Amino acid sequence: MLHLSYINPQTMQSEAEKRQTNRDITKRFVAVMYQCIGNQRVRTKKEFGEYAGVASSNLNRMENEETMNVPLYAIKNVHEVFGVSLEYIITGKGKMFA
Question: Which residues contact residue 88 at a Cβ distance below 8 angstroms, ignoring those fewer than 6 apart?
Fold first, then answer.
């Protein structure tokens, strides 16, 4: 289970570290998309995007251009629809699917 706790200001991330953390989370989200396609839970990126609440053009931006980070509502949606582990998406630890 993922627990969020008080963040010590002395250990806060720099802007560059925040950007990298967001990119890492987005990359794991994209990996989940391909796993769902590979496991035939969905047939296409467009269908995955419909479940996630993200336009296919934005999925392409997340994947190819790296100009967009995954929105929190999309993480919540894939967690609820596909049983994706929040711990995996946020930290990269544990199994992809709960």
Answer: 28, 94, 95, 96
